[in-house]
Design goal:
Blueprint: H1 6-14, E1 25-26, E2 34-40, E3 48-52, H2 54-62, E4 86-87
Antiparallel strand pairs: 1-2, 2-3, 3-4
Length: 93
Amino acid sequence: MVLVTATEEEFLLSRGWLLRDQPFDLCWLDCAHSGWLRTWRPDGAKALCICLCLEHALCLEQGVYGGDYTGAPLPAESLADEWPWRYCSEVNI
């Protein structure tokens, strides 16, 4: 289990992460930790969602540039080529 400080948790909550509920799924970014949900609608596009463990959620949020997630760097240890965003409709959100 990945632990975060109260300050980090408040930061994630302020960014729209649903941390008060049960985990949504396992982290979608190559790890086996519980993941929490975040939805995002980029400039008129279809709604996207992502499910990440707290460590990866912090990495994503700290990499946001100008409110846009598309340029956020992946964690150094990740084997992924991109963040695992999915259309909300694909996962019934």
